[in-house]
Amino acid sequence: MIITTSSSIAGKKVVKTIGIVKGNTIRARHLGRDVLAFLKLLVGGEIEDYTKMMAESREQAIDRMVEEAQQMGASAIIDIRFSTSYLMSSAAEILAYGTAVVVE
């Protein structure tokens, strides 16, 4: 499966547009990690646990989007975008979405 943020794929021709595909995940923060994150705020620097959690969330959302596209018969997803929304103070949704297409 080819996935790209652009609307075209070099060397490929879109022969069929299938439609919108999406994948999402909702993750909650860990109270213990919040304490460590607060301490990190005092001294500055990257909060590695949250960086890792967000990266894993994006990958899971992409995997779910690709699975949906494969079930629809797509060979590629173009115009990939990400969206993040906070559902409550300790949980966030990561959404990946794009256009499922058939390319040759």
Structure description:
The protein has one domain: Hypothetical protein apc22750. Chain B (Translation Initiation Factor IF3, 2-Layer Sandwich). It has a four-stranded mixed β-sheet. The protein has two helices and four strands. The protein is 36% helix and 41% strand.
Provide the CATH topology: Translation Initiation Factor IF3
The main pleated sheet reads as: 4 strands, mixed
The Cα radius of gyration reads 17 Å
Can you count the beta strands?
Answer: 4
Strand order of the largest sheet: 1-3-4-2
Please state roughly what percent of the residues sit in beta strands, choosing from under 5%, 5-15%, 15-25%, 25-35%, 35-45% or over 45%: 35-45%
Q: Which CATH class is shown? A: Alpha Beta
Total number of distinct structural domains: 1
**Element order: H for helix, E for strand:** EEHHEE
> What's the rounded overall pLDDT mean?
90
Based on Cα principal axes, name the global outline: elongated
CATH architecture: 2-Layer Sandwich
The level of helicity is 25-40%
Low-confidence stretches: none
Count of helical stretches: 2
CATH superfamily: Hypothetical protein apc22750. Chain B
Ends apart, CA distance between termini:
12 Å
Return the structural class: alpha+beta
